[in-house]
TrEMBL record:
Pfam families: Aldolase (PF01081). Keywords: Carbohydrate metabolism, Lyase. The lineage of its organism: Bacteria, Pseudomonadati, Pseudomonadota, Betaproteobacteria, Burkholderiales. Signal peptide: none annotated. It catalyses: 2-dehydro-3-deoxy-6-phospho-D-gluconate = D-glyceraldehyde 3-phosphate + pyruvate. Homotrimer. Belongs to the KHG/KDPG aldolase family. This is 2-dehydro-3-deoxy-phosphogluconate aldolase. One of its GO terms (molecular function) is 2-dehydro-3-deoxy-phosphogluconate aldolase activity. The keyword Lyase applies. It comes from Malikia spinosa. Pathway: Carbohydrate acid metabolism; 2-dehydro-3-deoxy-D-gluconate degradation; D-glyceraldehyde 3-phosphate and pyruvate from 2-dehydro-3-deoxy-D-gluconate: step 2/2. Its EC number is 4.1.2.14. InterPro entries: Aldlse_KDPG_KHG, Aldolase_TIM, KDPG/KHG_AS_1.
Amino acid sequence: MNSPAPLPLFKSRVVPVIVVTDPAQAVPMAEALLAGGVDVMEITLRSAAGLAAIEAVARAVPEMQVGAGTVTRASEVAQVLAAGARFGLSPGSTPGLLAAVLASGLPFVPGVASPSEAMAARDAGFTLMKCFPAAQLGGVEVLKAWGGPLPDLRFCPTGGVSLANMGSFLSLPNVAMVGGSWLTPAAAVKAGDWAQITRLAREATDAVAALQASR
């Protein structure tokens, strides 16, 4: 097994998964999330505006832990680092991608969809992984099952996670945080309704706090 890979530094247990179509949306969105208690945002590379949006947040809102999502190629690692991403995430984990990430020193959350993929990522040095697509793989039950043979690993389930079911995921000892798109609805972003995004972020933050207090 390689040396442990560095971990992201954000505190929020809810990671907004965001597709930005206009880089001008990124900074007010980051500020709205912070106002709601969420100090992390995953800006995906699913649109051409992704890198510019990451760069805008990194420059203007340094207290936001901005990460690059949907990193699927080794060549993208240098690009997201240059844009100022504090960490990266991927829906999968190929040997080439993981090698590039480890060489760069970028904190990274590789994606896995089976115990074998999780074991391979662990062998490469990763202990925090994205479980994707979580709902389609079996949701809470599959993560509960993985916890038996892989007790040393932690996961961020993404895909089908919502405010309604995130508590079930976060209650599992092997779930470190959850990822979801519900905090930044496309309609609210398009309308510039940052107050709604702050409200949704605060709702999620309060729900996490209530869950932790009940333990």
